[in-house]
Design brief:
It contains six helices and no strands. The chain is globular, with a radius of gyration of 19 Å.
């Protein structure tokens, strides 16, 4: 048996489910945000909270673990693309732990207490803003793993930097829209109607 091929397959399979599933949920939330559909937005947030702890977090750790095995046994840690990949993972893991989870918990508490208020939807806007930057980081990680750039690949490294800057700019613009009330969801907030759904979110958070 080719152990390298097996570990590499497991590394890629975990990454595909982790990144693909999270990206799908982000797209659903973005569509709901643009349509001003509060119900769909809350469903996407609830699914993110449920799957984040049960599926995405374990898969992200497995992706890291298999990647570390590949580097420790076969590849090594000295190549630039390995360093970039590990740094990117650290960034996206930190965003998940320091932004996504506490913000989702805070949103669930607000909805459970007050219903769907502008304050609750503002927390959802923060999650969407962070997700835009987070997935620009993930796109860079995928490109890094495939292209394996070296210090001589200035064009590739520059393109990766532009993707990160674009993701940060989109996140900041979206956050600014939410802060100034330009979000489509802001005009659709309802105070008491979604208390039951908020309770369900708080139980799963």
């Amino acid at each position: 048996m080719d152990w390298y091929a097996l570990v590499k397959f497991l590394h890629i399979a975990c990454a595909v489910v982790w990144l693909g599933g999270g990206f799908t949920l982000m797209l659903l939330a973005v569509r709901a945000d643009r349509a001003g559909n509060v119900d769909s937005m809350l469903q996407a947030m609830r699914a993110t909270g449920e799957l984040g702890n049960r599926l995405f977090a374990p898969l992200s750790l497995l992706t890291l673990a298999f990647g570390l095995i590949l580097c420790g046994v076969w590849v090594g840690f000295s190549d630039l693309w390995v360093v970039i990949g590990l740094a990117g993972y650290a960034v996206t893991f930190s965003v998940g732990m320091l932004v996504f989870k506490p913000t989702a918990d805070r949103t669930a508490r607000i909805i459970a207490r007050d219903g769907v208020t502008p304050a609750a939807l503002a927390q959802g806007q923060r999650i969407l803003s962070a997700a835009r930057f987070d997935y620009s980081v993930m796109l860079v990680i995928v490109a890094d793993m495939v292209l394996k750039p070296t210090r001589e690949d200035g064009f590739v490294l520059g393109a990766m930097a532009l993707v990160l800057l674009g993701g940060a700019a989109l996140a900041l613009c979206h956050l600014a829209d939410g802060a100034t009330g330009r979000s489509n969801l802001a005009s659709h907030a309802r105070r008491p109607r979604e208390v039951a759904l908020g309770n369900a979110m708080s139980r799963t958070a």
